[in-house]
Specification:
This protein has about 240 residues and is an all-alpha fold. It folds into two domains: about 10-80, Orthogonal Bundle (Arc Repressor Mutant, subunit A), CATH 1.10.10.10; about 85-240, GntR ligand-binding domain-like (Four Helix Bundle (Hemerythrin (Met), subunit A)), CATH 1.20.120.530. Helix content is about 70%, strand content about 0%. The protein has a two-stranded antiparallel ribbon. Strand 1 and strand 2 (about 70-75) form a beta hairpin. Helix 2 (about 35-45) crosses helix 3, helix 5 (about 85-90) packs parallel to helix 9 and helix 7 packs antiparallel against helix 8.
């Protein structure tokens, strides 16, 4: 990959974005060293302070590690990074192709976490909160299509997160929501299809409002489980963008 000269409006972010994409895309294999500060400074056309800040961010998210000899080594992010990398990649990496496996993984994980969240919400959510969910689902159905669906669906799931009362799930789901919704060109068409084929969250909301954990879990799995050909579907959409 040929690095691009950096637009000076957000220098560390832009350097971070390109290095992150190169690392995740395999341009620097695990265990290899990325170029030195001086070399990166020349490649990007920025000063070394900018490069140092970008590399520090790479370390913070678990993509690289500095060594005593001054080398910065690429880590296996599957072993060292957290869920926040999903959201960071979706928000910062412009090329869609390297993101597809991560977006598919995020959707698959969302299905598992979402099913357990609705079960917990049905079991221990406050009655007033559970009673509000059917109206929220109806607002999603009434919206039909458009970017407002992203905000309405996020509000629906945040209510369920509050009702479930599990902080670890809430933090994980925050990253998953960010990752799935970061790319509107992929996320919105996918959400519109998902909502259409699963009743616009109405079955989930009804089961939670009725205090039926099993029915809520089944409805969530039906709504959120991605099809087996999801990778090819997303790949086709990325090719159209």
């Amino acid at each position: 990959m040929a690095f691009q000269t950096i637009d000076r409006r957000s220098l560390p972010d832009r350097v971070f974005e390109q290095l992150m994409a190169e690392i995740v895309g395999g341009g620097y294999p695990v265990g290899s060293a990325i170029p030195s500060e001086r070399e990166l400074s020349e490649l990007f056309g920025v000063n070394r302070h900018v490069v140092r800040e970008a590399v520090k961010r790479l370390e913070q998210v678990g993509l690289v590690r500095g060594t005593q000899g001054g080398r910065t080594t690429v880590l296996d992010y599957r072993q060292t990074a957290g869920l926040d990398v999903l959201a960071l990649l979706a928000e910062n990496v412009r090329e869609l192709q390297p993101l597809l496996p991560l977006l598919v993984a995020a959707l698959e994980m969302r299905a598992g976490i979402g099913a357990d969240l609705v079960r917990l919400c049905a079991e221990r959510g406050a009655p007033g909160l559970r009673a509000e969910l059917p109206a929220m689902a109806e607002r999603i159905r009434a919206a039909g299509s458009g970017e407002q669906l992203l905000a309405l669906d996020e509000a629906f799931w945040r209510a369920i997160l509050d009702g479930a009362g599990n902080l670890a799930y809430q933090l994980a789901f925050n990253s998953l929501i960010r990752a799935v919704h970061a790319r509107v060109e992929l996320g919105l068409p996918w959400l519109e299809e998902e909502l259409g084929r699963s009743g616009h969250r109405v079955p989930i909301a009804a089961a939670i409002a009725a205090g039926d954990p099993q029915a809520a879990e089944l409805a969530a799995r039906e709504a959120l489980t991605p099809p087996g050909d999801l990778t090819s579907q997303l790949d086709g959409r990325s090719g159209q963008g």
